[in-house]
Each structure stands twice: as C-alpha cells, then as structure tokens.
Design brief:
single chain, mainly alpha, 2 domains, 262 residues, globular
Length: 262
C-alpha cells in the first residue's frame, strides 16, 4: 500500500505536466519541467512530489512566483487513489483498472477546472483502455446481464463497455445538439461527450448513468451557486462540466464498491 501511494505521487507529478502542457499543445516529455513564469528548468530536488512544494513554501526557487495549489492536490489525490485501490482490491487487475481510471479522472477534473480543456489523450485514450480491460475485468450492467449466457462473460463484458461508451456519449451529444438548435449557441463541448464515453467503457451502463445524473446535479448546484455568488451571466459563463462528470464518476465507483462488497 505504501508503494502504491509512492507510485501514485510520482504519477500525479506527471499528470500535472499533462494538465499544464496538453492545452498548450506542448510535448509532455521534453523539455524537462520548468517554471512557467521564469522558464528556468526545475532541478530534480525541487520536483519531489509534495515534499518540494512544502520545502519551497509553494514558490519557485528562482523567481519566487507562487506554485499553483493544483500541483500538490493532484499529486496527493493520485497517491491516495492508488493506495485505496490496492487496499481494497489487493495487487490485482481490479486494483490496476481503478487506479488507472482514477488517474484519468483526476487529470480531466483538474484540466477542465483550470483550462476548460479535456485532452483526447485521456478521453479517447481512456476509452480504448477501458475497452481493452473489459474482457479481463467484468463490466457489469444490463447488456452484460442479457448477453452473458449467449456470449460468455468476457465478450458480454466487452459488449457492455462498448454499448455504454456509445449510448451515453450519444445521449450527451444529442442533448448538446438540441440545446444548440434551440439557443443558437454551443451548450455542450465534444470533450464532455468523449469523457462520458470513457466513463461508460470503464463503468458500464449503471456507472455511466449515475455519473450523468450526479454530474448534472453538481453542475446545477455548485455551478449555479457560483454563478449567483460571483454574479456571472449564466448565458455566457462556461461551466467546467467535465469536472462535475469526473466527481460524479467517483461517486459511481463508491456506490459500485458498496454493492460489490455485499
């Protein structure tokens, strides 16, 4: 579990690189990590997850610019997610699946909240990963239940993942299309649609449904509350809906686990 925590912290550090660089269409491999303010290369001892942030008191060693709080939060969240997955499922493929899913969700939540951007590398790439894992780690839902006897568990699980990815992303796309027709402006980005496809591939019909409902409720309550408090124009403010979908997906995982343990 400690090794999982450390691995998660390191992965979280890399995810921070992705959150910053992918919206700018920069390579996540080269150059080495640098301060976005003074562009000085960050030494390895200033790039240790969590510890360096604390030792530097949240500031760049060279220019003293503040390091966004997102960096330690993403590292900590990923580390804890990996540790929890191993604690709950042991060193198994199930733990790997949900650790990977958690890392993808954390990246998308942070990226959409900060940049209003959901990178294809994590939405479409995550969908492919979810589909690839489906034959080996059962995805439960109405489709797999109906087809398990005729196709067998593995193929029924893959069918469940594929159907969920296509069906729920299609629902979200259609809702956005209707909104655009009625209001004559974009109401749903394709990034959100692709993200829900990824969730469906990992969680199946039940998980995707919970994600869509909880994400919508959070968007109305939290997003609507922020618009009122900050006195934003509801017709102009772009809500980070992908962030709410990500939180909804975490709720779906928790509910699934509670059912799984029964």
């Amino acid at each position: 579990m400690v090794l999982a925590l450390l691995a998660g912290l390191l992965i979280g550090s890399f995810l921070n690189v992705c959150v910053y660089r992918l919206p700018l269409d920069l390579s996540v491999v080269r150059p080495r990590s640098f301060c976005p303010h003074c562009e000085k290369t960050i030494a390895w001892y200033d790039n240790i997850p969590l510890l360096s942030f604390l030792l530097l008191r949240g500031r760049c060693r060279h220019c003293q610019a503040r390091i966004p709080l997102r960096y330690p939060l993403v590292e900590l969240a990923t580390g804890l997610a990996f540790a929890v997955c191993v604690a709950l499922f042991g060193v198994t493929l199930m733990a790997v699946k949900y650790a990977v899913f958690s890392a993808i969700l954390i990246t998308l939540i942070a990226s959409d909240f900060e940049e209003h951007f959901l990178p294809d590398e994590f939405t479409l790439g995550g969908t492919l990963i979810g589909l690839a894992l489906a034959p080996f780690i059962p995805v439960e839902g109405i489709v797999s239940f109906l087809l398990s006897r005729s196709l067998g568990t593995r193929w029924a699980s893959l069918a469940e993942a594929a159907f969920s990815a296509a069906f729920f992303s299609g629902i979200l796309w259609f809702a956005g299309w209707i909104y655009e027709r009625l209001r004559h402006r974009e109401g749903m980005g394709l990034g959100d649609v692709k993200m829900l496809a990824m969730v469906g591939a990992f969680l199946g019909t039940t998980g995707a449904q919970i994600t869509l409902i909880v994400g919508g409720v959070l968007g109305v309550v939290i997003g609507g509350g922020y618009i009122l408090i900050a006195r934003k124009k509801a017709s102009e403010y772009e809500l980070p809906y992908g962030s709410f979908l990500g939180l909804g997906a975490f709720v779906a995982v928790v509910l699934w686990y509670l059912q799984y343990r029964r």
